[in-house]
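Email to the structure team, subject: DUF72 domain-containing protein model.

Hi all, the expression group asked for a predicted structure before they design truncation constructs. Nothing fancy, just the tokens so they can compare against earlier work. One-line instruction: predict DUF72 domain-containing protein, return tokens.
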Amino acid sequence: MASVRVGIGGWDFAPWRETFYPKGTPQKKALEYASRQVTSIEINGTFYRTAKPEHFASWAAQTPDDFVFSVKASRFATNRKVLAEAGESIARFMGSGLDELGGKLGPILWQLAATKQFDPDDLQAFFQLLPTKLGTRKLRHVLDARHPSFLCDEYYQLARKHKIATVITDSPKYPNVTEITGEFVYARLMNARSELDTGYTRAELKQWAAQAHQWQQGAKSGDAYVYFINGAKERAPAAALHLLALL
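Reply from the structure team: attached below.
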């Protein structure tokens, strides 16, 4: 079924002991709790280090049946001058145990360095390296392009050709793409403020709720993923919970 999923990045963040988790929640129970408050979580530790099959299996076992993870791909595949040479790193990441998530495997996020400029030939070669399936499961890929050179029709056309979604963000530091380039929409909201209990004003969250419904209508699959991941990260869970209530 088409859906708007809302969540946070990771589940182990010390300030959340004060702003999100019930007092006394043991660390080993954090994912179990968090996954019952939001409808998706972006696994971002996999960007920095390689997880093992048993890790993915454990994460799947701790979460509800209808829960979905997105997974941030290894930086060794994306933080490089020539993306076309990432084949070995992509294969290593894809073989690290993602299949253990089963039906809980959602989009795979490929985050480029902020210095990586749009090079159509190099990017096309990279897109061609991304597998379309893992076993029998169709994969969904999303690119987090952080250089303003990606704000061009040539990039949008290339991404659509390969059915690669592009991260939509409100970050003041990175380009704000508004085009839908994949069959789903993937937003990473990074502009929360610590002085607001919910990170964003109620009016701003209402606007994001309306935007999420528009994304649903504009995306071929009808699916949208919205993550609160940065800015005043301690407010991310509250922002996600309020947006879910609005939706």
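Residues 202-218 form the longest helix (17 residues). The longest strand covers residues 105-111. Ping us if the truncation boundaries need rechecking.
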